[in-house]
Amino acid sequence: MKIALVGIGKIALDQHVPALEASPDWDLAATVSRHGRVEGVEAFTDIATMLSARPDIPVVSLCLPPVPRFDAAQAVLRAGRHLMLEKPPGATLAEVHALAGLAQAQGVTIHATWHSRMAEAVGAARDWLAGKTIHEGRIIWREDVRKWHPGQDWIFKAGGMGVFDPGINALSILTAILPDPVRLLSADLDFPANRQAPIAARLQFSQGIEADFDFRQEGPQTWDMEFRTDAGAMALRMGGNRLEIDGRHVQGADDIMGEYPALYARMADLVRGGQSDADLAPMVLVADAFTLGRRNTVADFHF
Ligand code: NAP
Predict the structure, then answer these.
(1) Are strands 222-229 and 82-85 parallel, antiparallel or unpaired?
(2) pTM of the predicted model, to two decimals?
(3) Which domains does the chain have, with CATH numbers?
(4) What are 31-48's pLDDT values in tens digits?
(5) Among 193, 203, 250, 300, which lies 20 to 30 A Cα-Cα from 233?
(6) What sequence ranges are listed for the domain Gfo/Idh/MocA-like oxidoreductase N-terminal (predicted)?
């Protein structure tokens, strides 16, 4: 199937383009971006022009940051094309509800992707936890914003989500593997004095689960979750790619390169099957953290 990619920036070039090039399902037929290009692919700078010039492209994948994404997403669906969204799927929950309703009315697929759910050991972790009682859980998600989002000022603007941009990846795994849904109980959010989004957050959930998100970690990066249950201990490390049971490595490696190929394979299945997938559970927890969170002011942040 032909597909167009919109927002040719860091994640489009790091992950989407290689995943599409390696896929038997997809033919990258056009890009839309004001500055970004992919060699050998027809380039547009505006979505409306691409949609009217290329009626032969039935699927559009959006890699824009969340705040400018809604108008492009709405244009895609109104043009009767299938839509794939980078995480988080919108700037607000209402936006994504509106898009899901529009997709249904138009009879097209919407896929709100959560790339971390495609990490190698997530399915095995869910299977292992099934039927067990969780006594406590600890999520540590600490990464270096300068490495993963160099110069991306949008991430610290209102709606950019700050540390919840990576933190929502942890929550996408959490909401996929737990036998029973969690709810947020309280949160502490650290906002740099010169920014509108948090650079660190500590969250407390039901079921004795806590999370520690930090965007200031230099050196080795940490994407771990650990659970103590009535039947032993389980840890998911490397962003869901490596599974340990009672301290023993049982599955997976430290490689994240399978996530985006799996997302595009899933999109192909959804389109072929006439189905949609727009689970908002991770985003609900983030919205609740902003609703309930205590706000602390910390040192200015500069890229
Ligand atoms: P990015 O490079 O800053 O943005 C992607 C592209 O979107 C930009 O190159 C720009 O293209 C366009 N864009 C940026 N701001 C815009 C605006 N205000 N209006 C219209 N277009 C705008 O961001 P990214 O790191 O690729 O992240 C994009 C999405 O992918 C985010 O939702 C993020 O959470 C997700 N993601 C990122 C990573 C990562 O490691 N960076 C990993 C997984 C998921 P033009 O200027 O050419 O139009």
Answers:
(1) unpaired
(2) 0.97
(3) 2-112 (3.40.50.720), 119-255+287-298 (3.30.360.10)
(4) 999 999 999 999 999 999
(5) 203
(6) 1-111
